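FAQ: What does a multi-protein file look like?

Like this. Sequence, then tokens, then the next protein.
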Amino acid sequence: MKNTTIVLFLILTLTFCNRTEQKETLLLADREAPLGWVYLRIYKDKTFEFESRGLERRGNIYSGTMDLKNDTIYFNYSDSIPKAGNKAMLTERLVLYFNGAYAERLEIKKNDLKSN
């Protein structure tokens, strides 16, 4: 009985670890907002998450796929589009959203994106 419990525990642990693996990020950018943070994460598989988070709660996460052409990122959202918009210019230090209700600026912390 003891050996069966140990084997079951190991199987569950390995299964859980595989499911919680994090995707490899190509771009990380963020900024402090008045009552929280705004994050952009772009992954190796061309998916992304744009997150607006408050101080004490998980924020709104907008996700989808992206395309990079020259210095412009085109965000194809799976559901709703945040007020920052769906296009951004990529500079050496910033991601600049330019077609939304407001101009969002995120500071780049990591950038391994390559243009098509």
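And here is the next protein:
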Amino acid sequence: MNVAKMIDHSLLRPELTLDDVARGCEIAARRAVASVCVRPSDVPFAVAALAGTGVLVGTVAGFPHGDTTTAIKAAEARALVEAGADEVDMVLHIGRLRGGDTAYVHDDIAAVVAAAQGRVVKVILENAYLTDEQKVTGCHVAEAAGAHFVKTSTGFAGGGATLDDIRLMRAAVSPSIQVKAAGGVRTLDTLLTLHEAGATRFGATATETILDDFAARERGERPAPSRAADTSGY
């Protein structure tokens, strides 16, 4: 199992300096993770920093609330992929989903997918604000609009990835759509439990802690504790 290639190393906190982003990119390259996920303004910097490393550059659109206009989200996605972004994590319009306006939500996502010009688009539902029925509807709409992933959270709302949500989202989409867990993925055991439930990518800031633990277990230095199913969240 290549745990590193399941991790999107998150560099989205508003207080990060460029020096902080540089250190994050160095960690991502050294640990050979799947990607970094940086703020839109940091995309050109991350592209240059990670050139030749095999680490993808991801970023966000409509972040963190999802309530910018569709035209702005699409323009943002287009500009970011032209700047070198490989993946775009967009926030759907949470209020419109909660209000039942699925046509708006579909068209909003589809516009970003088109603007991304074939790059991977992950749709953030922000599950903390949704009922289970709304989560399932959001997953269905995201798949119909051409998204490649559905994602639990931004990490900036009142809750993060939970085991129940991963199971629910995995069951709601076809095998061609992947599920990303974000928010509260701070330990290897959390990552592995959510992976067993169907998540294939993880937004994390505790990347080195997670990978150090995995390496120690691979060397037999730390026992793997029993991961009893925990549906309470992380």
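Q: Is there any per-entry metadata?
A: Some entries carry free-text notes. For the entry above: Confidence is low (pLDDT under 50) at residues 226-234.
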